[in-house]
Amino acid sequence: MRRFVLWLLVSPFALLLAPELAWAQSLPLVTTKAAGGSTVYAVPVETVLALTALSFLPAALILLTSFTRILIVFSLLRQALGLTTMPPNIVLIGLSFFLTLFIMNPVFESIYQKAYQPYTAGKINFAQAVDIGSVPLKEFMLKQTRRDDLNLFAKMYGKPIDNREDVPMTVLIPAFAISEIKTGFLIGFVIYLPFLAIDFAVASILTSLGMVMVSPMMFSLPLKLIVFALADGWTLLSLSLVQSYFN
To answer: Is this prediction's pTM over 0.90?
Structure first.
């Protein structure tokens, strides 16, 4: 499983380096001949690729999965509640990470079964495994990418793209990232509204009572916390975020 995780990290970046990888196939000490005459990468090269991919793990986690949207929503929720450090950043990041694993699990399972297992069995080479493994990931990203954002980067790409399946990762990744940020802010805006109404109500009551020197946060914060807790807000929000990817 550890080898699969390392291979999974290498795959998206191998798509971006496809011309260089193809050129490297003619270099000595880079590729070796496997049984049946197929070309495979030498162990040192695979190790270097895996170690290099690990340095890009944060970027891959943020830009190729649902992590961005979830973390933005949780951060905006914390601000809407009027809290600055609770829950701590490590808690929000950890919750976002495991929700991301839950959402992306079907994609990872598809990559494992269709690409990684045949690759380790010697049925396909590394380049073929990357091509096959990228299909489920691209399908997920295309489904969550707004058409306007995709068209914008496709237009800046400067080369004709016949259909959505032919969109290169260099176009899809920024379009997907911007779509996730935009969606996260829209969800955060909807979450802000009820808490904003509570803040206005408390401020109006204090002003009518002549307590203009008292901070409304002293009264609105506990009220927002109890309302959110009684409504089971964390569960409902997590459920809504997960369903937003499967609807």
So the answer is: no
